[in-house]
Amino acid sequence: MTLTVTRNATEGLGSVSSGNALELRGVTKMFGALAAIEDITLSVRPGERRAVLGSNGAGKTTLFNCVTGDFLPTSGTIRLFGEDVTTFPAYERIRRGLRRTYQISLLFGGLTVTDNVYLACRGVSRGRFSLIRPRKGDPLLTRTAELIEAVNMTAATDTPVSELSYGQQRQLEIALALAGAPRFILFDEPAAGLSPTERSELISILTGLPSHIGFIIIEHDMDVALRVAESVTMMHNGKIFKEGTPEEIENDPEVQELYLGDGHG
């Protein structure tokens, strides 16, 4: 199936900028005297797929939290499709096409796969506060089925989320991130805990996303990250350490010493 995603996610908030999808300038986040991230300057083009890599404590998740609005930066600016969103709450960034997955699954375990995806679609639609139950032919139900098929979960449509494997739950989270009209997605360690077969499935899903949707992936599995990304940013001690193509990063001696270890070929 070829997934189609509506491009206008902003509900009248402005057209897509011809500049960068995401632009950070001097972003710093302090927790007391500790700088979790410091002076981060980063630009990502529309449709670009980038991996942000680094050891535990490098500042990767804090960076995501600042981009999504879970944390406000101590200093610096964040622009999303040309608009300064530095002080915007998370829901305003969502309205502008930003989506995110988390390290820990945030799903309704007692509801089915269909119910979870439908609620995600409903939550970013104009009629999200309506109390009218959906009827057969509801466009959101159609969209729900498309998203479930896009992440290869049609066979589990009526399965309660609590009965899904961990890998299936991670796939479902991607479907939720695709609800509405995303323009940029942040994936926070989507391959964590997956089997080799599930990791292959994840790679297929991520590489099959519509070309206009850019994303950043945080991932400890280098094989997954380097296969789905076209550019890589390495972080170390809260700062950007190196940037380059997957091939350049994989073959860099300093990167191998700090992050890949002796077992990586």
TrEMBL record:
Keyword terms: ATP-binding, Nucleotide-binding, Transport
Question: Any signal peptide, and if so, which residues?
Answer: none
Q: Name one GO molecular function term.
A: L-isoleucine transmembrane transporter activity
Q: Name one GO cellular component term.
A: plasma membrane
In its keyword annotation, does this UniProt entry include ATP-binding? yes
User: Can you give the residue ranges of the ABC transporter domain?
Assistant: 22-262
| Any one GO BP annotation for this protein | L-isoleucine import across plasma membrane
One Pfam family recorded for the sequence: ABC_tran
Q: What is this protein called?
A: Amino acid/amide ABC transporter ATP-binding protein 1 (HAAT family)
The organism encoding this protein is: Hoeflea halophila
